[in-house]
Amino acid sequence: MTDRLLIEESAVNAAAPGAEALPPADPAGGGTPPEVPARSQGRDIWRQFRSHRVAMVALVLFVAIILFVTAGPLVWTIEPTFVDIRARNQGFSVAHPLGTDQLGRDLLARLMAGGRVSLAVGLTAMAIALTLGSLIGISSGYFRRLDAPLMRLTELFLALPLLPLLLLMVTLFREPLGKAMGPAGGTFLLIVGAIGVTSWMQTARIVRGEVLGLKEREFILAAKSIGTPAPRMILRHVLPNVVSPIVVAATLGIATAIITESALSFLGLGFPPDFPTWGRLLYDAVDQMQMYPWRVVLPGLLISLTVLSVNYIGDGLRDAMDPRIRKR
């Protein structure tokens, strides 16, 4: 009997080696082991993003700029288009903390209003470019018969001189759209449309590369083997896996659109004078730059800080969304 018990105990130990060394599930008895909290992808991305100090400083700065242009008018209630000839060309004062321009308009109020317009142009143009780039990139990467013509179209747009093309578009369509939608609305639609239509190429190439890599992954091949239709495959499997490069491209697209709008306004082909933007403020201040240099420095500084902060936020997101950096 004793020999039989020893044989059974040896068989159990051989079937589960090292099992006798494992601690009991609950030494106190009568309980369940503590549950390990599930990892969240969003938390991992935020944790990695917070470790990027420059990106965090850029995020704080960008939020401060947004609050300046959106909540600032609630505190500083002077109209940006109010003309006071008696207060023209004033310096820093209590009544006008950043001075006035050649028509007596308050520069602080105009910087706030111009920031709203510039950021609206950047966000809208970015959305147009992102939609076009993602659509063309996914179609080119997933459908083999569309790859060659769509990539040739992308290369054609990349070969075009964008600034002369933008100038031509603004010159040709500015007056008809202004008559149909008003000077401000027509110019806004024209500028965001022109910038968006000429800024989608980089996004398309990045998304295409990601889709080409995804097509060879096991879960894509498994979904194809069970007959998943192409639209469902793209929406359920492809698109969620290319969100990371799209988000990074979006942040960089905002900066590009703001710079392009500022360049058009600086050349005098942007918004009308009574519709301020940061680029328009630069254009209006060029003639008196030597006498009143702060009129050029202030909008230029805001443009530079906004573009730098958005670019650094994009760098932080790129690093945070890379699973190799997060060490998954």
Can you describe this structure in just a few lines?
It comes from Paracoccus simplex. It is a multi-pass membrane protein. This protein has 328 residues and is mostly helical.
Describe the structure.
With 328 residues, this protein is mostly helical. α2 packs across α14. The N terminus is likely disordered.
Detail the topology: elements first, then pairings:
Blueprint: H1 2-15, H2 41-50, H3 53-70, H4 72-75, H5 107-142, H6 144-159, H7 162-181, H8 183-197, H9 201-214, H10 218-225, H11 230-238, H12 243-266, H13 278-285, H14 294-320, H15 323-326
Region (Disordered): 17-40
Keywords: Cell membrane, Membrane, Transmembrane, Transmembrane helix, Transport
Pfam families: BPD_transp_1 (PF00528), OppC_N (PF12911)
Weakly predicted, low-confidence segments: 1-27
Largest sheet: none
- What is the helix tally? 15
Q: What multimeric state do the chains show?
A: single chain
Q: Round the mean pLDDT to the nearest integer and report it.
A: 81
Assign an overall shape.
Answer: globular
Topology order in helix (H) and strand (E) letters: HHHHHHHHHHHHHHH
Radius of gyration: 29 Å
Distance between the termini: 53 Å
InterPro entries: BP-dependent_transpt_permease, MetI-like, MetI-like_sf, OppC_N
Main location: membrane
Membrane topology: Multi-pass membrane protein
Organism: Paracoccus simplex
